[in-house]
Amino acid sequence: MADTNYDVIIIGSGPGGYVTAIRASQLGLKTAIVEREHMGGICLNWGCIPTKALLRSAEIYHYMQHAKDYGLSAEKISFDPAAVVNRSRGVSGQLAGGVGFLMKKNKVDIIWGEGKVTKAGEVTVSKTSKKAMEPQHPAPKGTKGEGVYKAKHIIVATGARPRVIPGIEPDGKDIWTYFEAMVPPTMPKSLIVMGSGAIGIEFASFYKTMGADVTVIEMMPTIMPVEDPEISGLAKKQMEKQGIKFLLEAKVSQVKKGAKGVTATVETKDGKKQDLTAEKLISAVGVVGNIENLGLEELGVKTDRGCVVIDGYGRTNVPGIYAIGDVAGPPMLAHKAEHEGVICVEKIAGKDVHAMDKSMIPGCTYCHPQVASVGLTEPKAKEAGYDIKVGRFPFIGNGKAIALGEPDGLIKTIFDAKTGQLLGAHMVGAEVTELIQGYVVAMNLETTEEDLMHTVFPHPTLSEMMKESVLDAYGRVLNM
Amino acid sequence: MPINITMPALSPTMEEGNLAKWLVKEGDQVSAGDVIAEIETDKATMEVEAVDEGTVGKIVVPEGSAGVKVNELIAVLLEDGEDAGSIDTAAASPAPAAAAAPAEAPAAAEPAAAASAPAGPAPVANDGSRIFASPLARRLAKLNSLDLSALTGTGPHGRIVKRDIEAAISAGTGKAAPAAEAPKAAAAAPALAAGPSADQVLKLFDDDSYELVPHDGMRKTIAKRLTESKQTIPHFYVSVDCELDALLALRAQLNGAAATDKDGKPAYKLSVNDMTIKALALALRDVPDANVSWTDENMVMHKHADVGVAVSIPGGLITPIIHRAEEKSLSVISNEMKDLGKRAKERKLKPEEYQGGTTAVSNMGMMGVKDFSAVVNPPHATILAVGAGEKRAVVKDDAVAIATVMTVTLSTDHRCVDGALGAQLLGAFKGYIENPMSMLV
Questions:
Q1: Disulfide engineering: B149 pairs with which of A206, B7, B126, B304, CB 3.0-4.6 Å?
Q2: Do A250 and A308 have their domain in common?
Q3: Does residue A363 lie within any of the structural domains?
Q4: Residue spans per domain, chain B
Q5: A454: annotated active-site residue
Q6: 0.80 exceeded by pTM
């Protein structure tokens, strides 16, 4: 009989789950991971990665349309929607296969099926009852199957799924979630995007570039409500230039399906109602944790608003049961899940680790222009009582940005005037998602403005703007 | 799993040491108890022995490295079947229980230090070595007048980070010395003046008129401890003259009566210093209120007189201790002192042989010094400075007479030994010196 005893069993092989499994194995813990439909979870299969592939196609298509700006010519520019989608599926398939390989390399057993914590220290795996979306990448070979497995430590890493608004339930045909939006059979001519968070904005950007008429509806007064309002305001302006329409402080009260697609009744803050008709509607109003059918309720695991309640080390109120990633609450980001998982197993292994610090988790949105940020926004810093110094540097002052033909954008830094602590950094513009990590490292190492000013940034790069922004906060900007 | 060998704490107060010499090389087999390295602290050289058996996989800190912090990884031991490839993981892990223990230290005395050391990273020494702290932590420390060297870092590799400063602020610890003194003064006390900087000093001399000799550990310790003593201890001085003629006569008599072994070597040879030690120990027994140590919370009342004796050695001085000197006979004290003095000069003293003590004697009589005042060496509350015994004119029965006289000066920590108490102690001391037979009973 196959061995069914483990030190750690992780339910869910998303970026949180599989990274946790690798780290657990590195620490010498006997580890298994339970997955019901796709190695790599939503991130690799239906989220972060395949959308980046789609957006890359859109970006190149955008550049081809603007070839003239660079002294080039391109004629009869067109695209094949099926090929664009196929490329995206191929990218995610390659990475999902990679996760299977990583499990094998790290001697992590994969148990295929739906996991349920039947009692403390015991996971019962049954056949997968329902798949979130087809087509799925093939399951890895050599996995274990249904049965009862034991582990001293059980980590729930089951992720999240799209939030559903009653009356506007996605039907997979006219009303989409990110699942359907990822694999459009044809490109819609018109589109309503409900919600302007990262998911909504990225799809709005993608479909706009591919030629759709896009309207974004947001309940809050700014788009991308978690971002600094100055940054999201600039992003909105640029997207409006591209032709995306925004309705802010508005909500969809009703959606009717007809022959031509959907008609959404949108109610604005002043009480006015208007009907918008489009071929498709994407519902991107957030995600909720997958906390159901895991046995958590029966075992008395505390949850709050659809997420498992944990401490800084992933521990729930029930000893031996842990949760990490989206299912354990916001921010629902892959990199937060990974780090939470690593802290969780290191604590289990008795390592001297510090609790999760959520104040320095960067966020990236891959719309055009890109948005990236870390730490406190300007309003939040003021709200927290800081006396702040704010630095700004626009892309138009940066040689590399001009050379790239990307003169729109801004890098903003926020410092505590008293201590010089970098409280937050916010960016909009080309490639900023690759830049933000410089500030994240700086914040984690607790540098002050002085150290950043003493650091040599390479020329000519976009990163020079990061230094200029710091200099600007202290009245020492050079190139503006 | 590979076993990390970390810098052992050879004494409870040890913060860092020099890795003087490796006695093993990578690939060597060692078993528990093998001496693997020699470690030099500020005052002594100690051997370190392996606690586990295995193969030396990697020597992390090369020999001759100075200022190695306690608990720093110095080498990695591989168990059977492990290869050097597994070392990285081990090095990245937090230090497990110290894998090395001082070889010579008696088991009973050391486990406390060895076991408690890994509980947290050692505080960083304040001797000019680099303190690892984040830029933000450094600035916060400055803004809040905290002394970084008094804090323990919880960041990677013991780095002091923002949360450590915040913890210190909320706990009220780690205040820089001037700030800590402030509450005692009615008005805000001026900050202690820092001495002139190296640049300021060197500027006063021509470039080719001097050579620079870097401080060794002992010099740094002497500088640190004595500065600390003079800045924090209110010193008070009491002097008295003692007639030595009776003591010298008794000493000659006792030494003459010493049994000899087959080589003609006497069983003991008492010095004036040995008798001074005994006299001070007995005086402390008689005046127990002076046999104390100061702490901010309590008066530490010692039950025995542990007398430190300053021994001048090349490059500095060290104060080995005669424990329970009030209970020991003169010959025992004398022989112990000879052994301690010899090993002090070889820097072979164990930490427990020079740390602690309840008082001290500093004797410069053999150098012809008439009198001087010594600096109290905490935790002591007193130190006796002994001058030369010399023939002086004294008045006896209203007539000038000749007597061998020695001047002694007692320095006291006025926080715990007041002037009158100091005088009482010195009176008792003088009594034993001038009536030396009383030391024998």
A1: B126
A2: no
A3: no
A4: 3-119, 135-184, 221-439
A5: no
A6: no
Q: Tell me which of A285, A303, A333 is where a domain ends.
A: A285
CB contact under 8 A, B140 and A419: yes
Fold of B135-184: Dihydrolipoamide Transferase (4.10.320)
Mutate to test the interface with A, among B79, B89, B136 (most CBs of A within 10 A): B136
- pLDDT per position as a tens digit, A169-200: 999 999 999 999 999 999 999 999 999 999 99
Domain assignment present for residue A168? The answer is: no
10-residue averages of pLDDT along chain B (441 residues): 78 76 85 82 74 83 83 82 59 42 38 33 52 92 88 86 90 62 40 72 86 82 87 93 93 90 87 94 95 91 94 87 93 93 87 89 91 92 94 92 94 93 95 92 80
**Residue A260, φ and ψ in degrees, nearest 5:** -90, 5
Which residues make beta-bridge pairs with A213? A190
CA B29, CA B25: separation in Å to the nearest integer? Answer: 9
Number of continuous H segments (helices) and E segments (strands) in chain A: 13, 24
Q: How confident is the model at residue A438 (pLDDT cuts 50, 70, 90)?
A: very high
Q: Which residues of A touch B139 (CB under 8 A)?
A: 419-420, 448
Q: Is residue A364 part of a domain?
A: no
Question: Taking CB atoms and an 8 Å limit, are A445 and B93 in contact across chains?
Answer: no
Task: State which residues form the domain around A228.
Answer: 175-285
Q: Which two tokens mark A70? A: 């660079």
A386 within domain boundaries: yes
Record the tokens describing residue A14, joined without a space.
Answer: 């998303």
Provide the domain count of chain A.
Answer: 3
CA distances from A262 to A171, A214, A281, A282, B111 (A): 12, 13, 7, 11, 77
Q: B137 at the A interface (CB within 8 A)?
A: yes
Question: Which residues 1-20 on chain B approach chain A with CB closer than 8 angstroms?
Answer: 1
Q: Provide the percentage of residues in chain A whose pLDDT is more than 90.
A: 94
CB half-sphere exposure, B347, CA atoms < 13 A: 18
Fold of B221-439: Chloramphenicol Acetyltransferase (3.30.559)
- Asked if B160 reaches chain A (Cβ–Cβ under 8 Å), the answer is no
Separation of alpha carbons A307 and A420, rounded Å: 36
Cα→Cα distances A97→A136, A252, B25, B29, B396, Å: 12, 40, 45, 44, 106
Across the range A309-314, mean pLDDT stands at 96
d(CA B352, CA B9): 12
Q: pLDDT for A43-83, tens place per residue?
A: 999 999 999 999 999 999 999 999 999 999 999 999 999 99
- A192-235 per-position pLDDT tens digit: 999 999 999 999 999 999 999 999 999 999 999 999 999 999 99
Q: A459 in helix, strand or coil?
A: coil
Q: Is B86 on the interface with A (CB under 8 A)?
A: no
Residue A175 near residue A164, CB atoms below 8 Å: no
Q: Are residues A239 and A376 in the same domain?
A: no
Cβ contact A354–B154 (<8 Å): yes
User: How big, in percent rounded to 5, are the helix, strand and coil portions of chain B?
Assistant: 35, 25, 40
Q: What is the CATH number of domain B3-119?
A: 2.40.50.100
Could you tell me the CATH number of the domain that includes residue A195? Answer: 3.50.50.60
Q: Is B139–A448 a contact, with Cβ atoms under 8 angstroms apart?
A: yes
pLDDT at A338 (0 to 100):
98
**Domain end marker among A308, A324, A358:** A358
Based on the domain organization, do A186 and A295 belong to the same domain? no
> Is the minimum CB–CB distance between B129 and chain A shorter than 8 Å?
no
